[in-house]
Write a structure and sequence with these properties.
This protein is mainly β and 225 residues long. It has one domain (60-224). 2% of the residues lie in helices and 55% in strands. It has a 32-stranded parallel β-sheet that branches.
Length: 225
Amino acid sequence: MKISGSGRLSEGEINDSLDVSGSVKIEGDFKCTGFRSSGSMRGDGNLTVLGDIRSSGSFRIKGNLQGDGNAKFSGSGSAGGNVSIKGELGSSGSFRAGNKVEALQGIRFSGSASVQGGLNSQKNIDMEGSAIISGDINGDNVYIGTRMSRAKKMLKQPFKVNGNILAQNKVNITGTLVDGDVKGRDIRLGQGTEILGAVYYVDNFEKHQKTKLTNEPIQISEEDL
């Protein structure tokens, strides 16, 4: 189904992809096999997509977003509830979520992000730009601010995590305030990072001279990871 002008859709389900190049408002819960938009999309309920989600314009729903494929936002993306993606989630613009975000194959934010729940992935979680995460971050490897420019490193902590960071392998973070614990196999804390909780590592620990720790790092066994 293609919408190239302005339109409204009632709640329901279509056995087709929804392709928007104009503006559309969905009045209720909606389900489709794919979603692509280069215009404006507004939804009053939940959106379920059985394939990929791609938006380069303005995307905003009041409910939950669920996708069976990958999801990519290069404009602004916002969901009032949970975001659950079976593939990879990427955003290079502005991304907002009113609850937790899960993307099984990886999460990458290179613009600004605000998540009112935690982040969860079986693969890598990689954040650049700026972010406020109000919950725990769980991933295989967690990278935050590792490619910041020298000028941006002078700014005070563009990344804030109001929870714990838990990685199965590496944690590499710069310019990040964490008000919980950090745990991983190998941990590197870069310039401008502050950890208010405890730091637990299995193999390697490294920190910048301008990193602030409330507690001394603790080496743990692999079984405790």
